[in-house]
Amino acid sequence: MAKSQLPDAVLVDKYISGDENALAILVNRHQSKIYGYIYSKVLDRDITEDIFQETFFKVIHTLKSRKYYNEEGKFLSWVLRIASNLIIDKFRSDKKMPMNRDTDELSVFARITDDSLNAERKLIKNQVEVDIKTIIEKLPHDQKEVIMMRYYLDMSFKEIADYTGVSVNTTLGRMRYAITNMRKVIEKNKIYLPS
């Protein structure tokens, strides 16, 4: 099996044993999810870069110390917890940084970079985003969380289960209920979402 296909837990063990390339594989495997998670909370590229780097300084330090990592293969959820703690620390220490709780929203169009949108399409896009935010806000917290992680952070159901500390079946159930509840809100409020 190629090293790039090894499970996270094996790569962590290899890194702790001195294989520096194992950490590079882990970083490459998860960097977009971790970066996306941080950015979704702070909405600033420079701060995201700083926290992303600091997160991996802590990861390296902890793994090299060989005493604080016992996540049983849940590497991504462990790193996301580190990032989350650093984000909270940043909010607490930097009074200039706005404590905007709206950063938890799901921005469906966050990855769209089509500059050719005409004025009408931009208006429709903005209205759809507002409507979707309204729908998601009406969901219970656990359902909102799984929607955000699945569609915004592109996390697998296993990763979401690991991060939230529930089973994969519970995660799938929350997703199913979230979609059902979103459909009910759309029908009840007669919201039109163009495809």
TrEMBL record:
Residue span(s) of domain RNA polymerase sigma factor 70 region 4 type: 131-170
Highest taxon of the lineage: Bacteria
Keywords tagged on the record: DNA-binding, Sigma factor, Transcription, Transcription regulation
Domain RNA polymerase sigma-70 region: 26-95
Keyword Ligase: no
Gene3D superfamilies the UniProt entry points to: 1.10.1740.10, Winged helix-like DNA-binding domain superfamily/Winged helix DNA-binding domain
Similarity-based family: Belongs to the sigma-70 factor family. ECF subfamily.
PANTHER family from the UniProt entry: RNA POLYMERASE ECF-TYPE SIGMA FACTO (PTHR43133), RNA POLYMERASE SIGMA FACTOR HI_1459-RELATED (PTHR43133:SF8)
Protein name as annotated: Sigma-70 family RNA polymerase sigma factor
Organism: Flavobacterium cheonhonense
